[in-house]
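Please check this one:

***
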Amino acid sequence: MTRLNFNPGNPYASTRIPVFARNAVSTSHPLGAQAGLRMLWKGGNAVDAAIAAAATMAIVEPVSNGLGSDAFCILWDGKELHGLNASGRAPQGWTPEYFERRYGRQPKLPRRGVDSITVPGAVSAWAALHERFGSLPFAELMEPAAEIAERGYLVPPVVQQKWAAGAPELQDQPGFSESFLPSGRVPRVGELFRFPAAARALRSIGASAGRSFYEGEIAQALTAFVQQHGGCLGMADMAAHRPEWVKPLAKDYRGFTLHEIPPGGQGIAAQIALGILSNFDLASLPVDSVASQHLQIEAMKLAFADVYRYVADAGMEVTAEQMLDDAYLAARARLIDPKRAQDFKAGNPVQGGTIYLTAADESGMMVSFIQSNFAGFGSGVVEPSFGISLQNRGHGFSGDPDGPNRANLVGPGKRPFHTIIPAFLTQDGQPVMSFGVMGGNMQPQGHMQTLVRMIDYGQSPQAACDAPRWRFNEGMEINVESSMSPATVAGLQALGHHVEVIDDPYQDFGAGQFICRMGEPASEGYQVASDPRRDGLAAGF
């Protein structure tokens, strides 16, 4: 079986070297990787490791995720691929009229506060994964996170930076200051932060296999707290929540297949962009050249134009298959002008704050997992007795009945457009790599850019992580990392791109983890790469 063929060496400055191991856990915080490895040492599998790591990440990176997050997963069980959509739905009281009465007609729902909170799904993802694939007792998987929450951890620089950036906006949200501003201020770098309320929640979740979160004491506490502060979320909304097993959406690219969770998430954007790029001979262009970067940017812009117009959880005007049709994408590719940048609009396919982690074990099981409370600290609302920081995924709904994507209009029991997307790469039906990139709409852009570097240019996962990235925003605007060649930046500007050079890569260009299978059988091992844009650690044994 052909594998990704990597060039030796790394042409980019890096603070990471790849890890080679038979069992691996890769996260953006060392304590998350340690929690996962602890489960593998106990005899657990990759799913056990991923769950323990996810629970720990909810504690040690509270800006990016928490116990009130959503989650998605793509998993190779050793024989076949499975997808899990554990995103939560809108409360039953959320109608367009409800929001129009409170806020007037808006293109988006509120970004913060109780009217941005949908049902949290991450805990249900942990429970569903464990029920179907786990091997260790569920309570054991919660214990590393509970211990860290109880004893405390030293706040790292990147987390502290985002904590300090978000606090001024959120300090007046219900429960936020009590939970995240100990001593009335943001913790300093290296300062011990304890979260005993979350430890209590984790042990309750562990003892009940997650049921207390949706039907028991935690559900009662958080719904009462939300309603006390004017929100709609109720016990019936929590009890009705069910994660959904789904078939991952597949798109071929140069002999490999990229798998993403199907809409209503934005993973299809990476697949659309790669489908467009398959019409160009990228490998004939130098990897960091203006010409190569321009084609990738324009393909991504075309992809987002369709995604923002059509993608929703249900009731889409077009199907995912129509959006990924080869003939349609070839027609979209013909719109790209190699000599100038353009502001693309949606086509017509009808022609006929996030953490990512990945784990793999020597039996062949590979887990691609992502969870997020959306914007930094999510809604900003924190139920204090259990430390549940609630997400603000409701902001992803449209609030305008006359808007272009009416399928994404807010409604009772609906799921909003989602940004978090785990990814998986196969070849000839066999696993190659579990991977993901964090950061809002940077996620599909990061998927596309790293895969192009690995597949078209033969770069290693670590080199693809370290390479300078660009990020499309809207219209003609793109941001680029300060490490990008000034000549490339000038060349993109000459083609009409409005380029802003950004010197803060973590805030704008995502971070990621990659576990690449090295051969058959799986016990031959994996190559693990992590992104230096985070304080993270890739670990294995």
Summary: The mean pLDDT is 93. The radius of gyration is 22 Å. The chain has 19 helices and 21 strands.
